[in-house]
Write a sequence for this structure.
C-alpha cells in the first residue's frame, strides 16, 4: 500500500501547496486502486516553514501531487522521502486517478516569484 497526498481547496488541487485548506490523502492498494481517503488539516502558511512534511511522512505519505510550491517546501518534502509532482490542477480525485494511470509527470516548475502585494511572506522561495 502507498499513500499520496494532494493540497486541497474546495475539492480541487490548491494552486499553492502551503495555503491549502487541508491535504487529501489517498491510500492506494497494490493494484493502484484507492481504498481509503482521509484528510489532514493544513497548518496554513508557507510549506517551508511548517512541519507538514514530517506529519505527512509520519502518516506514510510517499507522493505529493501539487499545483505549485517553492523550493523550500520542495526541499523539506524531498528530505522526508516524499516524491513531489508539480503542475497538477483540477479535481483531487481526477488528478489522483490520472497519476495512478501513469498520465501525470512533474512539470519541474515551482514558485519562483515573490508577491509584491504582501500576500506571500516566505523569503525562501
Amino acid at each position: 500500500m502507498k499513500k499520496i497526498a494532494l493540497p486541497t481547496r474546495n475539492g480541487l488541487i490548491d494552486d499553492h501547496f502551503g495555503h491549502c485548506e487541508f491535504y487529501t490523502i489517498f491510500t492506494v492498494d497494490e493494484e493502484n486502486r484507492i481504498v481509503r481517503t482521509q484528510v489532514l488539516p493544513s497548518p496554513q502558511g508557507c510549506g517551508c516553514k511548517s512541519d507538514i512534511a514530517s506529519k505527512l511522512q509520519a502518516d506514510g505519505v510517499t507522493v505529493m501531487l501539487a499545483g505549485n510550491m517553492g523550493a523550500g517546501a520542495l526541499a523539506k518534502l524531498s528530505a522526508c522521502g516524499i516524491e513531489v509532482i508539480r503542475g497538477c490542477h483540477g479535481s483531487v480525485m481526477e488528478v489522483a486517478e490520472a497519476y495512478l494511470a501513469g498520465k501525470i509527470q512533474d512539470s519541474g516548475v515551482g514558485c519562483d516569484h515573490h508577491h509584491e502585494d504582501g500576500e506571500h511572506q516566505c523569503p525562501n522561495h
User: Anything to note?
Assistant: The first strand starts at residue 2 and ends at 9. Residues 111-125 have pLDDT under 50 and may be disordered. The chain has one domain: 2-100. The two ends are 33 Å apart (CA to CA).
